[in-house]
Amino acid sequence: MGFIALAAVIIGLEREGFSLEIDSSTEKIDPGASVILTMSLKTAKGVDVALPDIRDRLSGFSVAEDFEEEPVVGKDGSTVKTVNWKLVPEPVAKAYYFEPPESAKAPEGPIETDPKKDLPPLSLKLLGLGALVLAGAAAVLYGILLFLRYVARRVKEHRMSPIERAWAELDRLVKRGLPGRGRYKDFYVELTMVVRRYVQRRYGVKAPHMTTEEFLSDERFNSSGELRTFLESADMVKFAGVSATPEMADGATESARTYLKNDSAAGDEVRKEAVK
To answer: The whole model's pTM is what?
Structure first.
């Protein structure tokens, strides 16, 4: 469905008491970055309408993840349903055409029955060139192996549960040793993103795109004192220019571990009670 046709559908729904809004996380498409597409449908009181699925109508993208948020009921009885899609741009194929080579001319003169091969003389320059070629081939092979390991790791993590994926991301961040190199702000940014991505995968909340206050205003998280303390102390380093120390970085890491552990354990208890 093109954008012009989609706009016409939106206007038509508004006249019948519906409103449909589609929002993108970016105005320009980057072939190397994903796009978050959000669709919100508002219906009048007493009317139940399902969100339309337009994923098959968007060309040039593949759906990596999708989740539907809890419906929000307004004071006037209207209901807002929201669904989010994470879209990944697909590679663009381009056709190339090559002209056929010209026909080779027939050789002139007598045919050599035993041609002599002129080999270049062995020299240090030739040896150096050979070593350079071998080193380049080894570097390319090593890069391919690293890429395959990266792809295998991402596939493995994609199949993990939210808490397993959070543990893997946290361990990888700690091994980078950012605080030891004085990169405290980068460390706190990535540490909070580990927690926010865990919340998004488990609860379907767009935590990575929300401010701390917007995030904590959700009643599912505002009662967690340890989460509030962790996020607010991290914001002081990220945005208020507070100088961090190795001890503060270790404490923030431990706070993240504690929240992930407690929240995961609470979820396990809820599932056990549901089974009973």
So the answer is: 0.44
Nearest to 153, CA basis, from 164, 138, 163: 164
Angle between helices 162-176 and 124-158 (to 10 degrees): 140
| Helices 184-203 & 162-176 angle (0-180, nearest 10) | 170
Phi first, then psi: give them for residue 30, nearest 5 degrees: -105, 120
What is d(CA 132, CA 220) in angstroms, rounded to the nearest whole number?
Answer: 60
Q: Hey, how many other C-beta atoms are within 10 angstroms of the C-beta on 46?
A: 8
Q: How far apart are CA 252 and CA 193, in angstroms?
A: 13
**Bridge partner list, 43:** 79
Beta-ladder partners of 85: 37, 66
d(CA 256, CA 250): 10
The one-letter amino acid code at 141 reads: L
Token look-up 């589609």 returns: 22
Q: Please give the backbone phi and psi of residue 177, each rounded to the nearest 5 degrees, phi first.
A: 65, 40
Q: What's the Cα-to-Cα distance from 203 to each of 115, 170, 207, 274, rounded to whole Å?
A: 76, 19, 9, 17
Query: What letter does residue 179 receive in the DSSP assignment?
Result: G
The DSSP code for 33 is S
State CA 201 to chain mean position distance: 12
Residue 177 CA to residue 261 CA, distance in Å, equals: 22
**What is the per-residue pLDDT across 214-268, written as a single tens digit (0 to 9) for each?**
877 877 776 667 788 888 889 899 888 888 899 999 999 999 999 899 888 876 5
Residue boundaries of the structural domains of the chain: 3-89, 157-275
As a whole number of angstroms, the distance between CA 71 and CA 39 comes to: 12
Task: List, in sequence order, every residue forming a beta bridge with 71; answer none if it has no partner.
Answer: none
